[in-house]
TrEMBL record:
Keywords from the UniProt entry: Iron, Iron-sulfur, Metal-binding, Pyridoxal phosphate, Transferase
The organism's place on the tree of life at top rank: Bacteria
Organism the protein comes from: Reichenbachiella agarivorans
Catalyzed reactions per annotation: (sulfur carrier)-H + L-cysteine = (sulfur carrier)-SH + L-alanine
KW Zinc-finger (keyword) present: no
Protein name in the entry: Cysteine desulfurase
Cofactor(s), names only, from the UniProt record: pyridoxal 5'-phosphate
Length: 378
């Protein structure tokens, strides 16, 4: 049996998305910047899909910029804000590397001072400490993700955005893991910049978007042609943009039914793991259904010299998952997220992540396989 439980890393393209993209490779293929009819046709496709994305996210098309994905969108949000004069950035140690490595590089070059907000037990943002940092550093850039990709921890973007607004801070939220899983009303939320990546919601890889609220001024990041209203040079990924918009449309259309299905799978996995696998626990807030993404479960297993082989052993059984352990020695590269929340570095960690295509039988197979691996150890 082959079981894919790594949907936070990427998702398979929905056949409906694939069909929607198909005409935009050979039938409609013009360069959207060309002024002839082929180009104009392609331009109208880009703009129609920008409008669709904007409508789904409760914002205006002028605030949606297509990019090559989440990494580019995070880089753009951060680097461009710094070019516009931001001198202090506030983040957390459990952000995705697209955010952390960008901020750290800017700090190394002396362009910003970087401050880390404290996390409470389990890895939630300590709101009192955030307020303290915001009061001391007026006009800072705040970069705090909506859902953590390893743990599934959800942050309260509305509370953070209100706090940022009241302290004159610019709020960038890496929303890659929550796009298409929850309804985002970006205009109402006061988030300045948010991010989407199509391959996380059954769209194609290599295409994403950056939402920049109309009041937020940033500089172009990719210099070149006048595409994306002079913000991001480069010929648009026509078929990719169609696939992104279709993926998001389907995600919104089927959100309730998919959410109920995936939540059921997560509850099933929690229950079966507790019943069948010795010594399991759940990392961060991932076992808390109200405070974590419904599609992610990060499971801790007891200390063992064989933990290094966990993912390999699951792979042999046909199960694809992600892992990571807190890095204690500094000699091996562990998970910076588990490390930051103080996870026991001797325990093993496995991230299971589900999609609308995951079945209850696959969950049971994964649990039984893990039980076979763990329970027969000394
Ligand atoms: N941010 C988060 C939270 C992610 O999970 C990912 C993908 O793993 C990214 C950013 C990067 O997105 P992309 O793969 O589109 O560059």
């Amino acid at each position: 049996m082959k079981v894919y439980l790594d949907n936070s890393a990427t998702t398979p393209v929905d056949p409906e998305v694939f069909e929607a993209m198909r005409p935009y490779f050979m039938d409609v293929f013009g360069n959207p910047s060309s002024i002839h009819s082929h180009g104009r046709e392609a331009r109208s496709v880009v703009e129609r899909n920008r409008k669709k994305v904007a409508e789904l996210l409760g914002t205006s098309p002028a605030e949606i910029f297509f990019t090559s994905g989440g990494t580019e969108s995070d880089n753009t949000a951060i680097v461009s804000s710094v070019r516009k004069g931001v001198r202090v950035a506030i983040t957390s140690p459990i952000e995705h590397h697209a955010v952390l490595h960008t901020l750290e590089a800017l700090e190394r070059r002396g362009e910003i001072a970087l401050k880390y907000v404290q996390l409470t037990q389990g890895g939630a943002v300590d709101m009192a400490h955030l307020e303290q940092l915001l009061s001391t550093h007026k006009g800072a850039l705040v970069s705090l993700m909506h859902a953590n990709n390893e743990l599934g921890n959800l942050s309260d973007v509305n509370a953070i955005s209100m706090l940022c607004k009241s302290h004159g801070a610019t709020y960038h939220s890496d929303t890659v893991q929550t796009m298409g899983k929850y309804v985002h009303n970006l205009t109402a939320s006061h988030i300045n910049m948010a991010v989407g990546s199509a391959h996380k919601f059954h769209g194609p890889k290599g295409v994403g978007f950056l939402y920049i609220n109309g009041e937020t001024k940033i500089d172009p990041f990719v210099y070149g042609g006048a595409q994306e209203r002079n913000m991001r040079g480069g010929t648009e990924n026509l078929a990719g943009i169609v696939g992104l918009a279709k993926g998001l449309e389907i995600a919104y259309r089927d959100m309730e039914i998919n959410r109920a299905h995936i939540t059921g799978l997560k509850l099933q996995m929690i229950q079966e793991l507790k019943e069948k696998v010795k010594g399991v626990d759940f990392n961060g807030l991932s076992g808390d259904m109200d405070r974590s993404l419904y599609s992610v479960l990060n499971v801790g297993v007891p200390e063992s010299a064989e933990n290094d082989m966990l993912l390999f052993n699951l792979d042999i059984k046909g199960i694809s998952v992600s892992g990571g352990s807190a890095c204690a020695s500094g000699t091996n590269v562990g998970s910076h997220v588990l490390d930051a929340i103080g996870s026991d570095p001797n325990r093993g960690a496995i991230r299971f992540s589900f999609s609308k295509y995951t079945t209850p039988e696959e969950i049971s197979y994964a649990v039984d396989s893990l039980a076979e691996i763990i329970n027969c150890r000394d």
